[in-house]
Amino acid sequence: MSQINNTGDAVFRTILILAASLILLIVVAIIVMMISNSMPTIREFGFGFLTSSEWNPSARVFGALPFIYGTLATSFIAVFISVPVSLGVAIFLTEQAPIRLARPIVFMVELLAAIPSVVYGLWGIFVLAPFVREYLGWFLQTYFGWIPLFQGRLTGIGMMTGGIILAIMITPIITAVVRDVLEAVPVNQREAALALGATKWETTRIVLSNAATGIAGAVVLGLGRAIGETMAVTMVIGNVPQITAKLFEPGYTIASVLAANFAEARDPLYFSALIEIGLILFLVTFIVNAAAKLLVVGVTGKGMTQNT
Amino acid sequence: MQNEINQKHTLLENTGNTGIQHVGKRRQLINTLMTGLTAACTFLTIALLLMILGYILVRGASSISLQFLIDTPKPVGEGGGIGNAILGSLMMTAAASIIGLPISILAGVYLAEYGNGWFGRTVRFVADTMTGIPSIIVGIFVFTVFVLPMGRQSGLAGAVALAIIMLPIVARTTEEMIRLVPNSMREGALALGAPNWRVTWDIVLPAAKSGIATGAMLAVARVTGETAPLLFTALNSRFYNLYMDQPMASLTVQIYNYATGPFEVEWKMAWAATLILMLLILVINVIVRYLTRKRF
What we know:
The complex is a heterodimer.
Chain A: H1 3-45, H2 48-51, H3 65-96, H4 99-114, H5 117-144, H6 159-184, H7 187-195, H8 200-210, H9 212-228, H10 231-236, H11 254-261, H12 268-300
Chain B: H1 2-15, H2 25-61, H3 66-70, H4 83-114, H5 118-130, H6 135-150, H7 155-179, H8 183-191, H9 196-207, H10 209-224, H11 228-231, H12 251-259, H13 264-295
């Protein structure tokens, strides 16, 4: 090999390494920036920041619990609704529908993921919120009103509406990953079950039990997306920092308190409190996504980028 | 003992003689029921999509006009439009692509060609997890490291935020596309005496070109619809603006402002702006579909 070739390779490789390092660098920079900027509130409130439910910027008292609660409440509503539906769609597409029918449906479900968050928010305000107020809320409160979860003033704006919007938004993601996972189950398992006289559904149940780890990963991934989703939720949740079991009442999520207030936070302590909330969000989504990746990749051997 | 034989006997009768038509009624019923349920889930999902698109089309189309497409926002009641927002979105997306795509593609090349060691694995893992980081976090990051030192919001800051969101997505799709290039092509070129970097640059990259372009376009389509990272970085503007160091309007932030505003005229403009945004994204997606179709 000539000297020139070796230098060329070395230069090329260095450029590539620099580009790849940038990904690590940005993530490290985000972590460093968030920790250093949230030091004022960490010093001022310590661990109590996470457990206090009082949020009063003008009195400079900050507790993140209402936002953590709102995030968890909406995300769990979303997962609760979306998981059965996504499983159904994925099973229909991989196990039942003929390929000619499946292909356009796959395209349409993917299209659902291509709709921007702010558009879901707009639709949520003007279509979903009235529906929740007039029909869903009315129905649940009339027949199941004794359950505290379904109580609250019916304005259409609240945690329930936020959760439903999130459910629609994470359905294409969970569906796509579950499809990958189901397709990774060897065909001969299905053939064996069918040959033993199992019905289609019994075969599917065997496939599902073999794909359980990957499906868990898909659900965790969906949960991660729901936790971090910002605009749509901000537009329909009502933005009131309160902790209540009544899901029709307004709430506030971590992402939405950032979207709604970060631009105005001039007071250093307020600024720091918002960044610390952002830090919590960052750490939680990072851990949740890492967990999802470990669960899914173990099964399909694929990354998750296609599904974003 | 006798009991067991009887049991076996009935089992045989149940399965052996009957054939497929006579699978237990209950099992058959459950099968039909579950098939119906999965089909219903699919129907529900598709119906929701059509409903959302339908609302956008009907409500958007009813308040769109040429004036609306070229005007700038005006005080409520005096009409106004989204011309500057369309321009802002296009400019920031273009700038984000110029900043983000080359770096992302290079990172993807690294992962595919040299990324099997610990460093490559770490980058891959971090990139995958980074795609799941909420975009508002990226907005906050760019605000603290870019907007605060510069002293004001700017279109450039918005573009940087969008580029950061593109980075892991494009890097990973690029990697996957390059991995599809058969090894025999690399070996052939190496055997002819080409150095590694020329093999990658002149043989592998051209072979994976259309796949990489598809991934890049999908990322572009995605950041076109991003709102959260622009809220504090590009802010908004009421004027046509060609300078990237000034605050810049975007379709998405404009939709957010109109949708959460108190007046019905604003809501109508939000729907119209949404229709334009969706058309933009749809066009990009259709181009991508077309490209991928040709490839297979």
